[in-house]
Amino acid sequence: MKQGFENRLAAVAAAGNATLNGGLRGVEKEALRVTPDGFLAETPHPAGLGSALTNQFITTDFSEALLEFVTPAFETTWEALRCICDIHQFTYTHLGDEMLWTASMPCRIPADREIPLAQYGTSNVGRMKNIYRSGLGYRYGRQMQVIAGVHFNYSLPAAFWPAYQAVLGDKQAASDFRSEQYLGMIRNVRRMGWIILYLFGSSPAVCKSFAGGAVKLPSLNADTWFEPYATSLRMSDLGYSNQNQSRINISLNSLDEYVRDLTNAICTPEPLYEDIGVKVDGEYRQLNANLLQIENEYYSPVRPKRVARSGEQPTAALRRDGIEYVEIRSLDINMFDPSGINQNTMRFIEALLIYCMLEDSPALDDVALEELGRNHAATAKQGRDPEFRLLRNGQPTTVRDWGTEILENVLAVAEIIDGHENDQSYSDAVRSLHPYVDHPETTLSARIISELEETGSSFFEFGLGMAKCHRDYFATIAPMPDAQKSRLSQEAADSLHRQQEIESDDDITLDEYLQRYFQSC
To answer: How far, in Å, CA of 380 to CA of 105, rounded?
Structure first.
């Protein structure tokens, strides 16, 4: 297996400068708006940020208080980081005395039903987005839905594909080849994605106010629960890896199988959700009573994606022209970085994805899926435990042994990227993570626990202190360029007009709109 990777990497490197350089990367980052004393903001989406329905840079996720910042696709990590920083800085000019919570796990949030759903106006598409969120609240609880994270989107450069197809001697259509290779990448991300939780997990503790006090974890102090060796409670069964979707198996072995399984889940009734009701007393509680309301409800740490056209379902977009890029969804907000992510993280993830593309990637059967699911969940809760063992093809292995192997192969990719740029930034990013594997106490999650233990602070106090520090950071750094400020301001204003146009163009009822949207079922 290792030899196959090395041969492919050498062949790609020999194909020319453009094969691994010039790919596109983008960032999506969520953050809760909170009051100066750290409680969930109950105010509407700030008017100065424009329409959450149509603003391409600033929207909302589940709650009206849960902002989501979206960068365009850039050719460098610096451009992506600069953009996400600018969006933060611009947002703070419209928050008044509110702040952005700097942790993935929320704190001091109200009772479940009091958490406000995101609002998107009176159009059919806006109301559909609101109903979808209502359904999520009924199905999983609203508190779980205000857990925040960072998504990293990546596509290899256009020049990579014909070069790599020639290396492999593959004769199929270009779009089919691209989708097949991206799925191989995704399968390997699922196999090795535990290392993302280990290296970048930043949620080892949680407020005792979370989940109404029903969480069963050890107490760190009077106001804080934790797992002593946790990396990412956000990605554990406490957060997104919940049991509600344990029966949903989506194949990653071919694009046809992936689309088929996802479509079946959207069209298959679920008795538990039928008990909730769909339209009760004239008001929608959820879009439908099926296993998934729409594709986005499927919680996966990595997704194949294609930009959909207006009104197009994600699965239809994938059917149309295959996979366009990959979305990594398992990154916690880095509490120590004002923007929640840094360039080294992006560089490592990019090189890891390329490694996962070039490495052998056999099909995943039920046994393999169970093993990788176990590794993911166990790393989230106990990944830093010296006694912890991952399973690799049924055999126990240590984080240090497997992690060192992954880092060595990712470094080989990083060196090829750097060689074409006459730089060392990617290699340095990978090398900077080696101590985490050798010394678990240096990881982000361990640093947070140490900070709480040494200061005697609760998770809430620590998070609030970091929120104030980051607010002050964005207030004191150099102002963003006038062109970028103007671009963000203009987009906010234009987005309000676009929402009005969408609302005025509706010519069918919501019932008719939803019937058309789900007609494939």
So the answer is: 14
Give the CATH class of 2-517.
alpha beta
H-run or E-run covering 164? helix 160-168
Beta bridge partners of 71: none
State mean pLDDT over 491-497: 98
Strand locations in 55-177, DSSP E?
A: 58-60, 66-70, 99-100, 150-155
Confidence of residue 240 (pLDDT cuts 50, 70, 90): low
CA 308 to each of CA 56, 298, 312, 320: distance values in angstroms, whole numbers, following the listed order: 14, 17, 6, 10
Name the phi and psi angles at 111, rounded to 5: -55, 155
- Residue in the block written with tokens 């008795």: 271
d(CA 334, CA 199): 11
Q: Are 488 and 109 in contact (CB under 8 A)?
A: no
Cα–Cα separations (whole angstroms), residue 82 to 137, 140, 153, 330: 34, 35, 16, 22
- Structure tokens that stand for 253 in this block: 């072995």
Which among 148, 153, 414 has a CA at the least distance from the CA of 302? 153
CB 174 within 8 Å of CB 165:
yes
Euclidean distance between CA atoms 174 and 165, whole angstroms? 8
**Bridge partners, residue 396, by sequence:** 391
Strands 99-100 and 24-34 turn out to be antiparallel
231, 197 contact by CB (below 8 A): yes
Q: Tell me which DSSP letter residue 39 carries.
A: P
Q: How far is CA 240 from the centre of its chain?
A: 11
Beta strand 224-226 with 279-280 is: unpaired
Contact 118, 63 (CB under 8 A): yes
For residues 437 and 400, is the Cβ–Cβ distance under 8 A? yes
pLDDT in tens, 337-385: 999 999 999 999 999 999 999 999 999 999 999 999 999 999 999 999 9
Q: SS3 for 355?
A: helix
The phi and psi torsions of 352 (rounded to 5 degrees) equal: -60, -45
Residue with tokens 């989501």: 68
Buried b (16+ CB within 10 A) or exposed e, 392-426: beeeeeebeebbeebbebbbbbbbbbbbeeeeebb
Ramachandran assignment for 297, one of left (phi > 0), alpha (psi -120 to 50 degrees), beta (any other): alpha
- Cβ(332)–Cβ(463) under 8 Å? no
